[in-house]
Amino acid sequence: MRSILIRGGMGWTSPCPLLGKEGVPARASQRTGRLGGERRRMVPLLLLVTALGAGRLPDGVLLFWNADNDDHNGWRDNHWTTGGSPLAVYDAAEKREGRAALRLTGEPEHELWLNNLTCPAEVAETGSYVLRFFARTAGVKGTASVKALAHHAEGDRSQPLGWAGLAADRAELLLPADSDWTRYEVPIRRLPGTTNRLYLYLCILGPGTVWYDDVSIAAAGVEVPVGGFQTLRDEDYAGIRFDDANLPAELLTNGGLEENLNGWGVQRHGADIAWSADPTGRSKGCAKLTGVEFHGAYLHQQVPIDPRRRYRLTARVKADGLVGYVFARVLRFNQHGQPFGWAGADHASDLCAVSGRTDGWVAVRQEFEVSPDTASVVVFWNLQDTIGTAWVDDVSLAPLALGKG
Ligand SMILES: [Ca+2]
Ligand SMILES: [Ca+2]
């Protein structure tokens, strides 16, 4: 189990050269650490992140959180600015649906809550909405409750207006002290005037334990399937389509780096990337990345993809005593050309990483998948806050047959 904070929707915990000056390289040793300091400057970018999993939310669902242990959820606990509370965790053993539930463990005279800080429900003042969630409680001596804070947002500003009226027009929906998993379906009866945003608070005050799962806000009359998602149709996917019978073996241009850096973009932020003759004579050329502390260099190429498939990224890498490591990342872009998060297994998603010194070229390989709304990806080779020299060659991005992997 991990702290919510680490997994708390931070799709952007690393510098992205396409996103401008936010990209202060994080030290390699910090990459898996808690969030803090300069990383918090990434937070506005999180507003771009949407929680599309392997499915499609029904129209009219304004907020859905499966409380599974994945990225891009946008929720924070009330200690997030100082690293997150260890008492707010994903619990894979006790859950109502999916991979996990949120577990909050209360302490005497302390309030612990989670809210959807970077994924508010965008509502209309005159609309009718229903709050749904599953909850289980055990030994609650104080108060386990759910509240919804109304905001008026305009431009960059968001002003709290007060608590929305939930069932029986109360500001707070109280949960029993001990209960098995229960589905709550609560009309949001009253929104303060000019409300256009709702933030939910999943709370515990005092000793006890509460689990939450499958939390949603939807327009009245819209059913939310358990697990949140409907089966995807082909038209729900962005991007292009490949035919299994005629799959391209390679999506990248000049992945072998035989023709200088043609086809590749280069960004040098204090570190260096240049085309180089292959130091082993195995092929004609490759990319040479020379890193220094606190700086980065990025070799990148963007390609349209078919998001229904898995992809295999491969390369050859040679490293000359790297302090830190060279690795690839895959940044997803939507159909509007906006970046919205890294592809991969976790929030950092360093692919094909190589550290230290290699004995000549080593082959690296990793598979990944993307969300359905991904129209294109940028493959980055990164050397950031790393000292030493790395060579990269034979970079390949190949789509896999549907259903493979
Ligand atoms: Ca769940
Ligand atoms: Ca080559």
What does this protein look like?
The protein is mainly beta. It has 2 domains: 50-231, Jelly Rolls (Sandwich); 244-399, Jelly Rolls (Sandwich), CATH 2.60.120. The chain is 1% helix and 44% strand. Strands 14, 15, 16, 17, 18, 19, 20, 21, 22 and 23 form a 10-stranded antiparallel β-sheet that branches. Strands 2, 5, 6, 8, 9, 10 and 12 form a 7-stranded antiparallel β-sheet that branches. The chain is elongated, with a radius of gyration of 23 Å. It starts with a helix and ends in a 6-residue tail after the last strand. Mean pLDDT is 84; it is low at 1-53. It binds calcium ion (CA) (2 copies). One calcium ion binds next to strand 16 and strand 23.
A few lines on this structure:
This protein has 405 residues and is an all-beta fold. Helix content is 1%, strand content 44%.
* CATH architecture level-2 label of the largest domain: Sandwich
Classify the beta-strand content into a percent band.
Answer: 35-45%
Cα(first) to Cα(last) distance is 26 Å
| Total domain units | 2
User: H/E order of the elements?
Assistant: HEEEEEEEEEEEEEEEEEEEEEEE
Name the CATH homologous superfamily of the largest domain: Galactose-binding domain-like
The number of helical elements comes to 1
Low-confidence stretches: 1-53
Could you say which structural class the secondary elements and strand pairing correspond to?
mainly beta
Shape: elongated
As for the CATH topology of the largest domain, it is Jelly Rolls
Q: What value does the average pLDDT take?
A: 84
The CATH class designation of the largest domain is: Mainly Beta
Helix percent band = under 10%
Radius of gyration: 23 Å
Number of strands: 23
Q: How is the main sheet built?
A: 10 strands, antiparallel
User: Ions, cofactors, ligands: which are bound?
Assistant: calcium ion
